[in-house]
């Protein structure tokens, strides 16, 4: 078993033990943090049943044998009906465009190494009426990195190309955006892009909090649109979420709904008004949505029209990675 697999196994063992003890623990927080407690999460799931989604339906399996450990998923806006996926640390510095049956249509090679790519998003950027891909090099299992990166580039189009195709992006085509947390180093596996261009980082574990006696609280950090494109941007904690080991998330294309998942639960928020911000929304109690646990399942993404959400598993014990869809009812 690889070092990376050992880390994942250790983290998942911790996750299940921490989850079991969560009801016995009282979580402390900084005075300026807004915390959603586990009891309010459960209450919200019972009381705020505002969305109804069907059980999962398998659409296909990932055909590319190189895609063993998918850690991020985002639906393409430029290439309708396709999704972007990628792997994390120790894998090539590339992303893949696949269809819902798992067939690779394009491979995009980026110039910088995959230190630990943990999520991917598609959203707006500096040029109007243009879609951008955001690749989050934000994994930090050993808390060894003081600066994390987000790679941003104009979403490639496969229109008119012979498929499958390979596209090599130059240094000039990819922006490397630098970020550092104001309160110290964090591990993170979730990046979401709001419709106004804000970037949201949801941390997976926090310094001093990765103990069973004090279960991990996910932190909500935001880089407001207009962040620096050169130099290091400072990320300040806005609030805390009592979601253990968040592994992926997505904001809907209309900016009204949010999904965040961990290894066994999908959490859902919906704005109560058009003026409510994502930062404000994430201080409220979420609803839990249908989800069947997958082998190493970390990735989640909205269908572009909001009619449902996708998840994808990893390859485990020679069982192919599957693509699942949960339709809105």
TrEMBL record:
Top-level taxon in the UniProt lineage: Bacteria
Claim: Lipoprotein is one of the keywords in the record: yes
Keyword Signal among record annotations: yes
Entry protein name: Putative lipoprotein
Cleaved signal peptide residues: 1-34
Keywords: Lipoprotein, Signal
């Amino acid at each position: 078993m690889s070092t990376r697999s050992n880390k994942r196994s250790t983290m998942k063992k911790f996750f299940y033990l921490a989850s079991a003890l969560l009801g016995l623990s009282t979580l402390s927080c900084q005075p300026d943090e807004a915390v959603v407690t586990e009891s309010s999460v459960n209450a919200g799931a019972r009381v705020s049943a505002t969305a109804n989604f069907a059980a999962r339906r398998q659409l296909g399996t990932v055909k590319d044998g190189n895609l063993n450990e998918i850690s991020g998923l985002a639906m393409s806006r430029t290439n309708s009906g396709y999704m972007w996926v990628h792997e994390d640390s120790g894998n090539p510095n590339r992303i893949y465009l696949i269809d819902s049956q798992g067939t690779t249509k394009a491979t995009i090679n980026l110039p910088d190494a995959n230190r630990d790519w943990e999520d991917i998003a598609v959203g707006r950027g500096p040029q109007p009426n243009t879609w951008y891909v955001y690749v989050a090099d934000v994994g930090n299992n050993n808390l060894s990195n003081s600066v994390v990166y987000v790679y941003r580039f104009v979403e490639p189009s496969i229109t008119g190309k012979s498929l499958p195709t390979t596209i090599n992006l130059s240094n000039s085509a990819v922006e490397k955006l630098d970020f550092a947390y104001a309160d110290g180093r964090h591990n993170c596996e979730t990046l979401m892009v709001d419709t106004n261009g804000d970037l949201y980082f949801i941390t997976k574990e926090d310094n001093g909090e990765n103990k069973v006696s004090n279960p991990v609280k996910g932190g909500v950090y935001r880089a407001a649109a207009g962040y620096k494109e050169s130099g290091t941007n400072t990320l300040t904690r806005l609030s805390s979420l009592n979601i253990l080991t968040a592994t992926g998330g997505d904001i809907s294309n209309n900016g009204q709904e949010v999904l965040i998942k961990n290894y066994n639960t999908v959490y859902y928020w919906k704005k109560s008004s058009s003026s409510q911000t994502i930062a404000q929304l994430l201080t409220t109690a979420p609803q839990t949505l249908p989800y069947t646990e997958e082998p190493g399942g970390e990735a989640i993404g909205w269908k572009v029209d909001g009619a449902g959400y996708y998840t994808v598993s990893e390859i485990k014990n020679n069982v192919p990675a599957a693509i699942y869809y949960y339709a809105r009812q």
